[in-house]
Specification:
Layout lengths: L2 H7 L1 H21 L6 E2 L2 E2 H16 L19 H16 L10 H25 L8 H7 L3 H17 L3 H25 L5 H27 L3 H10 L4 H4 L5 H12 L3 H18 L2
Antiparallel strand pairs: 1-2
Helix pairs in contact: 1-2, 2-3, 2-4, 5-7, 5-9, 7-8, 8-9, 8-10, 9-12, 12-13
């Protein structure tokens, strides 16, 4: 096949491939500490990666949103080209964002703090969920979630302390607290899974998962600024693994929470949630 002709006939696919190449190379260079100079508060490498990702997003926009010129005859749809473009876009979405490599502790701490209103709201929902359960199931749920208020308050306080002072000592305290809360939530999921009444179990698991999703997001953020030794230590403290609670989790609900928080499409949030869970399981959580 003539490569020049292929580029001319399938410009969107070719452009997507070029942009993904830029994103991939930028990510690799960033991981290796190659900056190519500074650009504002970041580096030239991260700036190029960010611009390429933004252009890729524009390239993937819904073509129905753009004005269409009338055609004399319906165009022929190249299904193979469309499938290739979709595959390229999927690969791009699954790549780690290059500007997240080496993200400062202060920025991560602020992102954690930005999650705290949602966390406090989810814990408040926990407090009122027992009233929705069957009388025999409410005590099981209450016993499983009794420490959520205190754990949430401690995590919020540690996150704010880290924003004020992103030091190694404060980070270590934040690491300890997020793992303690994560383990508490995982234990609550296992207990809620023992509820026999289907309606009660559904209410209980949904309420706990809202907290679990946020704690998992915070854990991922903490993990991103932690050393390999610290991550290994956190994983060792995680005795109730994600694999044990996975049957009680809804990926759809988790994606909806993440999408609402970051203002992104649910489909993209689903892929990011899946990638985060996969990375944490690989790390030993």
């Amino acid at each position: 096949m003539n490569p020049i002709s292929n580029i001319w006939n399938h410009p969107r696919t070719s452009a997507a491939g070029v942009l993904i190449g830029v994103i991939t190379v930028a990510g690799v260079l960033s991981q290796q500490g190659v900056t190519l100079g500074n650009a504002g508060a970041g580096t030239l490498v991260t700036l190029l990666g960010a611009i390429a990702t933004a252009l890729l997003g524009l390239l993937a926009r819904d073509p129905s949103a753009a004005p269409q010129r009338p055609l004399a005859a319906p165009p022929k749809i190249d299904r193979g080209s469309g499938q290739k473009l979709a595959a390229w876009l999927l690969v791009a979405l699954l790549l780690p964002l290059p500007w997240m490599e080496g993200c400062s502790g202060t920025a991560v701490a602020q992102d954690i703090v930005n999650w705290t209103p949602a966390l406090e709201s989810a814990v408040t929902t926990i407090d009122s969920t027992a009233a929705l359960l069957a009388p025999a199931d409410a005590p099981i749920f209450s016993a499983a979630t009794i420490g959520f208020d205190a754990a949430s308050n401690l995590l919020v306080a540690q996150a704010r302390a880290y924003v004020a002072n992103p030091s190694a000592g404060v980070l270590a305290e934040l690491q300890t607290q997020v793992i303690a809360f994560e383990q508490q939530v995982n234990g609550a999921l296992l207990q809620a899974g023992k509820i026999v009444n289907p309606a009660s179990q559904q209410h209980a698991l949904a309420a706990i998962q809202a907290v679990a999703t946020i704690v998992t997001a915070i854990l991922a953020l903490v993990q991103s600024v932690s050393s390999k030794a610290a991550v290994a230590r956190m994983a060792a403290q995680s005795t109730i693994k994600l694999a044990a609670v996975k049957p009680y989790l809804s990926s759809t609900l988790a994606a909806q929470i993440v999408a609402a928080h970051y203002g992104m499409p649910v489909a993209l949030a689903q892929m990011q949630v899946a990638r985060t869970v996969q990375d944490q399981a690989r790390a030993g959580f």
